[in-house]
């Protein structure tokens, strides 16, 4: 048996640097916990000369992927490049050469999971991706192993730190979306092009991965209904607060007899829900299983060391499997093909904010339309009546989305309705 | 390869019934996730005729342990009897016969872990015990695998549901310990003899197990400082609230350069700490690692199905290892021998409530004693001054426990001090 397992690292950005540092700083603990030493033999980077603030051994860097994929001594390839290509080609090449792969790449796993798992299975390698969702929070292994005895009914959570930071600020300080985005960009929490975060696309990739594991059914990314937070106003946050809710961007996956719901959108959740207290850039994932009941997993969803913590745990698992000669012990678990329901068939409660004429009979006409479409109202509050216009804030009972959309189409036609100002789903209560 | 892995179940009480039900209800999911079917072949019970509300196959029950330990077809033994004996003998016998063991027995694991792990290692079997701590919350596997790349600095949490239910009631309703205990007993949350829960002994076993794993050092139960909640009064809860804290019974384990601290006691934690929101009978464990930062794991710490969820996950892992012929892939991890610090050497802040004479100069004389013992005070509030007596509520800065005890010895001698009414540690803030 080898005394050291050698690793090839693809990428030395934020996460790559974290992986390097943890393997160095916690070396002795890690060696004893795995039963064998772990050593990074080669690191592929684009630029050999960039200063990375690490003291690296002579000759460890390379710009040539083949120095890693062609090296039979390297048993584990760790991909922290991000993006689809060239990461995908490199990972497939590594798997095809019998190397186990650890990746933090949510884009690649969400969009090409099937191909990757097939390659891993064919070559009897581990393909581990704990770091691809919710950074340091061990949610993948929890779903695949710790809750494996359950039928998972729901997984939903705060899986994008940038938008949670922004919504926390908006809630605490009453500021609007544009200002808080600028601040988040200035602090480095949001990128120059913030679309992936504020548009919900980052969260969509992550909930697609979580739902695929929870429901044993591969969820194609394009079937994830995705809505960002750009339309959330201080007004909505205020009304949420008055009604006993807080607004969070959630990734939501539910397993219903008719099929699975997978969606990302801003959501009203009750203030006493465990997710409501998750502020700033923290992530948390709530899981409901038919045996375990309600559980929640909380931690940092991004950052150099938290994400690297997940990567290193996967490296250690891959190493254990290599020592025992059982890579692939837990492989792809998508053995079902449950249908993904179109968003019109999803069930939710809805907060609806309307700007209407401030005159008698308006509420009656609106209530009539909802009634016709079988949308039952839980509460109606009239706000900001000026004599000319008023705001109507409605919360529905649980109803199929299509009914709400149909009702809103009709409501928009009413002469007394100036605007459907916002529609936000309500979750997390019976 | 076998088509079904056969299981022997020891005990058919609450948890045993849950295990039986989950394996039946989620049978197909479990089979697909493991890659092989799981079947309970024999169940050992004390009384064959008791009605358990399950429809059991003819002949599955036995009162004879040898029907399980002597049966070569049975590969996994699941122990849910509780208590030390005869569980310990049965488990050792099972391990010595090469069977993997899954147990929910915190008493046995906390007190006889070393013997058990040695037997598991000698016989190359799995010994899995996720259900022994915090019911359905997957904290053992998380520490052993998912956070294995970290140096764990702290583990602390709410690991006794009964006392958390009682403290939640006392906080919400202002009632006193005795009344809430009666109510908890009436509802079946507390046992007729509540000592194990309210005395902190149940939590002590669990934190001993968690600390052993987190710090890779076997923690003898007798070295866990243990203090229950019987001395917590509505007054303390009120003052905690005023000062921005909430009182929880915590198991606490810290890894310091001088050694490890492992203790159970009622604790002030800040209201905005993630553990503060964990109410009723829920459990939650907070873990701080040097890479991952702060994480928290929340769920039901007891009950038929939540505990059984953890047992079944362990059974599935044991089955995977048997299929691949690698039982024991993650065995005992106590490869260090860090010293456990005596309670006098632990570091904490302290809330101290004194009943004193209501006259000038009292505070000065008390402050002088604390100063002499190098205990620095963060805040002092005088309460309930009646002209005769007053209550002094003090919160210290972080200090070694021995200094506080020494100061209190001297303070008790002061003629102006009637009573040291309570001393409660403060944790969870910098």
From TrEMBL, chains A, B:
It is an enzyme of class 1 (oxidoreductase). NADPH binds at residue 106. Residues 351-425 form the ACT domain. Its cofactor is a metal cation. One of its GO terms (biological process) is threonine biosynthetic process. Keywords: Amino-acid biosynthesis, Metal-binding, Methionine biosynthesis, NAD, NADP, Oxidoreductase, Sodium, Threonine biosynthesis. SUPFAM superfamilies: ACT-like, Glyceraldehyde-3-phosphate dehydrogenase-like, C-terminal domain, NAD(P)-binding Rossmann-fold domains. Pathway: Amino-acid biosynthesis; L-threonine biosynthesis; L-threonine from L-aspartate: step 3/5; Amino-acid biosynthesis; L-methionine biosynthesis via de novo pathway; L-homoserine from L-aspartate: step 3/3. The keyword Amino-acid biosynthesis applies. Its EC number is 1.1.1.3. The active site is at 206 (proton donor). One of its GO terms (molecular function) is homoserine dehydrogenase activity. L-homoserine binds at residue 191. It catalyses: L-homoserine + NADP(+) = L-aspartate 4-semialdehyde + NADPH + H(+). Belongs to the homoserine dehydrogenase family. PANTHER family: HOMOSERINE DEHYDROGENASE (PTHR43331:SF1). This is Homoserine dehydrogenase. It comes from Desulforamulus hydrothermalis Lam5 = DSM 18033. The lineage of its organism: Bacteria, Bacillati, Bacillota, Clostridia, Eubacteriales. The gene is hom.
